[in-house]
Design goal:
- With 473 residues, the chain is an alpha/beta fold.
- It has 20 helices and 15 strands.
- The longest helix is centred in the C-terminal third of the chain and has 21 residues, at 452-472.
- InterPro entries: AhpC/TSA, Thioredoxin-like_sf, Thioredoxin_ResA/DsbE_sf.
- This is Alkyl hydroperoxide reductase subunit C/ Thiol specific antioxidant domain-containing protein.
- One of its GO terms (molecular function) is antioxidant activity.
Length: 473
């Protein structure tokens, strides 16, 4: 009996390991990163622009770390640390020893710049012969060849120059690489060709047809996919004959839209489904199509019951994204410590409306907006609770500003900037108005100096009037 149980346990463990993929180990030693923590992310899907945590490297006091991840196919990850965006394409069952650049933190100006773009690079390994090393060498060679013939390529649109570039790449990488590398090479060259010769999406979109879903999470795929199909639903609806596209969207006619994709982009099957989902995502944010129709199509069984797992996941992510913080939706509770260190939550009280202002107190524009909260408090104190959620900055500056200006608000400090990320705040100030039940009132709440007084005042009068009339009934 004991032997049977032991065999059963071993069998279950073996099956579990095979289902979860093979273990890939990631190691790194760099004293400059002592006690640092780097989180590596993967794209949740090719469309929603949401990320998921892949693994975390936690360096000890000597600058050494190690992590592992179970994968059964090539897996793209990236991490933003300091001024860098390091990219890493992992292979199943492989141990990789990373070679990180000297650690360089963001400057004060970088931290305040909402348009700051980190330096993107493919991380080298100490082995020197891993997949990532080959991709990194490919990118360097591509940049070298591009710089050499830049004018001929981008200004003269010379086909001969582009053929020289491809010949140079083939000469530098004559041997057949892994499937992941060959796809990266193909898509990067196609992206460059599309840019150089100002190609229309339909001129090269057929390149996507044969790409397996296992590569949809790779950077090269996502970059070319975004470029090719970005806002194509709006563009097509405005083109000659576009009335049919608009009618198909309004009529929630998925079959007609797939026929359109097949005809124009030469795509069918699973790839056409992915393209349609991308178009519906972009069409929603364009505000040029019926919102209800787009939501219904995304929630249809065509996507949620799709035979391809990655289509189902993408549809789920897109549906969650387009409904997040929309008018009428329930906003996540914000639970943070205030200036005195006391833990407070924005949903503790259901007596008043809640005006939430995300701000960075070190910027002059935010300081002026926060000062104007005194005026808003005078006008709406009976009906409005004001919360300020601060980006974590120098504590002395925070304390001195609020002590000097006596801002009439509950001030919460987002120490790890997690709430800012959860609410998808990209620039400061950004504001939200919630009702007593913590539901979003406006799709776009104005900032204090940008018209919130008029926006909320007009709405509040109508809202209170309607409530009084309903109570009278």
């Amino acid at each position: 009996m004991n032997h049977s149980i032991r065999f059963l346990i071993i069998l279950i463990a073996a099956l579990s390991f095979s289902l979860n993929g093979r273990s890939t180990s990631i190691r790194c030693t760099n004293p400059e990163y002592a006690n640092e923590e780097l989180t590596f992310y993967a794209f949740a899907d090719p469309i929603s622009n949401n990320n998921k945590v892949a693994f975390t490297l936690k360096f000890n006091s000597e600058g050494t770390c190690e992590a592992s991840i179970q994968i059964d196919e090539p897996f793209f990850t990236f991490s933003e640390f300091g001024i860098y965006r390091g990219m890493l394409l992992l292979e199943p069952g492989v141990s990789i020893d990373l070679k990180l650049p000297p650690l360089k933190k963001k400057s004060f100006a970088d931290q305040k710049n909402p348009y700051f773009q980190p330096i993107a690079f493919w991380i080298y390994t100490n082995n020197g012969d891993m997949l990532n090393d080959k991709i990194s060498r490919f990118e360097q060679k591509l940049n070298e060849l591009t710089d050499r013939d830049f004018n001929a390529l981008y200004f003269q649109q010379s086909e001969a120059a582009f053929n020289r570039l491809k010949a140079g790449i083939d000469e530098a990488f004559p041997e057949k690489g892994s499937e992941s590398f060959e796809l990266h090479k193909t898509l990067r060259l196609k992206l460059m060709e599309a840019d150089i010769f100002r190609m229309s999406p339909e001129d090269y979109s057929a390149v996507f047809q044969s790409i397996s879903p296992k590569f949809w999470g790779h950077q090269s795929f996502k970059t070319l996919f975004d470029k090719t199909f970005n806002k194509q639903l709006s563009f097509s609806a405005k083109a000659i004959g576009g009335a049919k596209v608009s009618a198909a969207v309004a009529g929630e006619n998925i079959s007609a839209l797939l026929d359109f994709i097949s005809t124009k982009y030469k795509l069918s099957g699973t790839m056409a489904d992915l393209v349609l989902l991308k178009m519906l995502h972009d069409g929603f944010y364009s505000k040029e199509f019926p919102v209800k129709a787009i939501k219904n199509m995304i929630a249809s069984k065509h996507f949620t019951g799709n035979r391809e797992t990655k289509i189902r996941e993408a549809a789920k992510n897109v549906a969650a994204k387009i409904s997040f913080l929309e008018k009428g939706s329930e906003a996540p509770a914000i639970c943070l410590s205030d200036i005195s260190g006391k833990k407070l939550c924005t949903n503790n009280s259901q007596e008043k409306f809640k005006y939430i202002v995300f701000a960075d107190v070190e910027t002059v524009i935010c300081q002026e907006h926060l000062k104007y909260l005194s005026r808003l408090n005078e006008l709406f104190n009976k009906n409005l609770d004001i919360f300020v959620v601060l980006r974590n900055t120098d504590r002395a500056g925070i304390d001195s500003f609020f002590e000097e200006n006596k801002v009439p608000a509950t001030v919460l400090i987002d120490t790890e900037n997690k709430t800012i990320a959860e609410y998808k705040v990209r620039s400061f100030p950004q504001c939200f108005l919630l009702n007593e039940k913590h539901q979003v009132v406006f799709d776009d709440a104005k900032a204090p100096l940008n018209g919130f007084e008029q926006q909320f005042g007009t709405w509040l009068r109508n809202e209170l009037f309607m409530r009084q009339r309903n109570q009278a009934r």
